[in-house]
TrEMBL record:
Protein name listed in UniProt: Cytochrome P450
CDD domains assigned: CYP170A1-like (cd11049)
Any Pfam family the entry gives: p450
SUPFAM superfamilies the UniProt entry points to: Cytochrome P450
Organism: Streptomyces daghestanicus
Homology family: Belongs to the cytochrome P450 family.
Region annotated Disordered, chain positions: 453-514
InterPro entries assigned to the protein according to its UniProt record, in alphabetical order: Cyt_P450, Cyt_P450_E_grp-I, Cyt_P450_sf, Cytochrome_P450_monoxygenase
């Protein structure tokens, strides 16, 4: 006769982060050593109180509690310092809108991100990837970050505007986004409005970039209204603005059309570009992982062609490289929520209007979920590998009903781009390990410069020789100061709401927190 085993409820721990400075709180630590600060918090508790300027906030450090927050959007709604700042840029678009309006907006945009639509864009993505490296020359330095931003701008503009974003406007969009992304992070960790109303050069640049970006999008909308209809996302939005979408989503206002386009531009361009730049930085520091990737690409893309959906499904190792990059260096690394009512989290009473934070970077670097969390090891994502049981800790695209709508789109774009570029080029560091980038609004190398080497086919002598094996993230960070050309001046987001499949044993691919 067996007896029922009593289930013991987990005892959560709470604490306070160390090092509070008068007026600034923990903003100095977040600005000066943000990643180290985040990694120190789980030792303080499962929920840790931090100060953002004079404002109290609570960092959620355990993946189960983060899922509790993300899957209860009525209680933990989009809000807090990050979204307060983003609304000035993106209005109430899909990423920033309150819970009550999210379902309507998501239903309107979802058809653009279905697996069938994304699959149909695979070759277009490959063509954009091929175009950015057409001007590269053997042995010459390559501004990888700029190339990846150009690539994602091209792909995103094809999705939104059918390619009507000409070269001049694309360059203007990239310039505006660079200024905006740099300015968002400091506005998040130091939520003191008076500081950002001062007429400083940085504040003027930021406000000017926002105005110019809005103006560019308004011009594109006006031109489309005067021209022929097109089957792209702008066309879908304009149809909805006229009340003819037929999806019972309700008509969009003129302002909402612009808000959605700016939202998808920022998230579609910035986050995926940072992920791709991080991929090539990590491969330059880890020749064994690079060699394994090249072997797969040489086998699947033997003729050097752009991959289609069929070839993409066979690029398992390439997908593992992208997934491990998203784990080690998630572009969206810190997010906020706002409580809509008094509630309890891990035994901690939170008042209505409390700021709650969670960090994919923090979760992805928990050694209880990912052994040797500072090491770049794509093999951990092999079927049945060590990451198989760590899915709840892997959140590059959020979770719940606000999960990124563009997750599948972003993963397809990243895998395709890595396959096309790495099939033909090897990018190596000019001198020494690259180290870890310093985050701002997003995490990724903002000024990554590598040297391009054309790859020879195995039949012609094999891939170019690789440099010595790279170090882990922490060793590279502390043993080598930032080099010229390595990203150390980074700004926190990208679109999170659409197609290869999600990583086989890890996160699903979608997210609206980018």
């Amino acid at each position: 006769m067996s007896e029922a085993v009593p289930v013991t409820e987990r005892v959560w721990t709470t604490g306070v982060a160390p090092g509070i400075f008068p007026f600034f709180g923990h903003a100095i630590a977040l600005l000066s050593r943000p990643l180290d600060f985040l990694e120190s918090l789980p030792a303080r508790g499962d929920v840790v109180e931090v100060r953002l300027g004079p404002r109290r906030a609570w960092m959620v450090c355990h993946p189960d509690l983060v899922h509790q927050v993300l899957k209860d959007p009525r209680t933990f709604d989009k809000g807090g310092p990050l979204y307060d700042r983003l609304r000035g840029l993106m209005g109430d678009g899909l990423v920033t809108c309150p819970h009550d309006d999210h379902r309507r907006q998501r239903r309107l945009l979802q058809p653009a991100f279905t697996p069938a639509r994304v699959s149909a864009l695979t070759r277009l993505m490959g063509e954009e990837a091929a175009s950015v490296c057409r001007s590269w020359r053997p042995g010459r330095r390559v501004d990888v970050t700029a190339a990846m931003v150009a690539l994602t701008t091209g792909v995103t503009s094809r999705l939104l505007f059918s390619g009507s974003l000409d070269a001049g406007r694309a360059a203007a969009v990239r310039a505006c986004l660079a200024v905006v992304v740099r300015g968002l992070f400091v506005r998040t960790v130091v939520p003191v409005d008076a500081l950002f109303r001062l007429p400083t050069p940085g504040n003027r640049r930021y406000r000017s970039a926002v105005r110019r970006l809005h103006g560019l999008v308004d011009t594109l909308i006006a031109e489309r209204r005067r021209g022929a209809p097109r089957d792209d996302l702008l066309g879908t939005l304009l149809t909805a603005a006229g009340g003819g979408d037929g999806a019972d989503t309700g008509p969009l206002t003129e302002r909402e059309v612009r808000d959605q386009l700016v939202t998808l531009l920022l998230t579609g361009v910035e986050s995926t570009a940072m992920c791709l730049a991080s991929v090539f930085a990590l491969l330059a520091d880890h020749p064994e992982a690079e060699r394994t990737l090249h072997e797969e690409l040489d086998a699947v893309l033997a003729d050097g062609s752009v991959p289609g959906p069929g070839e993409l499904a066979r690029l398992a190792r390439t997908r593992d490289v992208v997934t491990e990059t998203l784990r080690l260096r998630p572009p969206g690394w810190l997010f906020t929520r706002l409580t809509t009512r008094e509630t309890e989290l891990a035994g901690c009473r939170l008042p209505r209007g409390a700021t709650v934070l969670y960090s994919p970077y923090l979760l992805h670097h928990r050694d209880t979920a990912f052994p040797e969390p500072d090491r770049f090891r794509p093999e951990r994502w092999l079927p049945g590998g060590e990451a198989a049981g760590a899915g709840r800790a892997m959140l590059p695209f959020a979770a719940g009903s606000r999960k990124c709508i563009g997750d599948t789109f972003a993963m397809t774009e990243a895998v395709t781009a890595v396959a096309v570029i790495a099939r033909h080029w090897r990018l190596r560091a000019p001198a020494g390990p690259l180290g870890r980038p310093r985050p701002a609004a997003t995490l990724g190398p903002r000024t990554l410069v590598l040297v391009g080497e054309p790859r020879t086919r195995p039949a012609e002598g094999g891939p170019a020789s690789a440099p010595p094996h790279g170090r882990n993230e922490r060793q590279a960070r502390h043993a080598h100061p930032p080099r010229q050309g390595a990203s150390q001046d980074i700004p926190l987001t990208g679109p999170q709401d659409a197609a290869p499949k999600a990583p086989r044993t890890g996160p699903t691919t979608a997210g609206d927190d980018v």
